Amino acid sequence: MSQRASFTRMEDSVAADWRLIGAEFMQFAGQLPDRLMTHLKLLENDYGGFPIDRYTHCLQTATRALRDGRDEEYVVCALLHDMGDTLGSFNHADIAAAILKPFVSEENHWMVAHHAIFQGHYFFHHLGMDRDMREQFKDHPAYARTAEFCELYDNPSFDPAAETLPISAFEPMLRRVLAQPKQSLYKAALTQRQSA
């Protein structure tokens, strides 16, 4: 980047500053899939006591969803569902959901945001917690979807012998799903910029 905005306070900025910043933003936003794959790779060799590392768990969860015929958006959610483990040790699902929110449906966003509570059905009782904590959401429209995600894809994906596709198998769909936000504070400005 050779040019930079000249303001020191946003209130002093002018439209030319934001044209420059906007051009940089579009390039930066286009690199999001690369940054996510790099970040996901941080989970490699991070076992945390589990039978497989967290990276393999994410790949295995996505592999199961793909092999089951789920659409690309769902598979990308499966791939990234635990990527928040590195930064959100106590709220990893919130981090993954926040990253995915602009790009996925409300039901898929809710599924990722709540999967930790639903996954708890399989182990919370071993920690002295309520394994049926998910029941507080029993009337939510995405309850069944989230329970199914955990049962079919997240829960069984700790198997060292299970099929696990490499990240390269998911990269094209990750790029497609993250190519254009469906919802964002900046969506109108982005749409206007792209049509100009």
- Indicate the structural class: mainly alpha
Question: Could you say how many structural domains there are in total?
Answer: 1
Mean pLDDT: 94
User: What fraction strand?
Assistant: under 5%
Order of helices and strands: HHHHHHHHH
Distance linking N and C termini: 22 Å
Quaternary structure of the protein: single chain
Please provide the count of β strands.
Answer: 0
CATH topology: Hypothetical protein af1432
The coarse overall form would be elongated
Report on the biggest sheet: none
Stretches where pLDDT is under 50 for at least 5 consecutive residues are: none
**Nearest-angstrom radius of gyration?**
19 Å
- What is the level 1 CATH name? Mainly Alpha
CATH superfamily membership, which one? Hypothetical protein af1432
CATH architecture name: Orthogonal Bundle
| Total helical elements | 9
Helix content: 40-55%
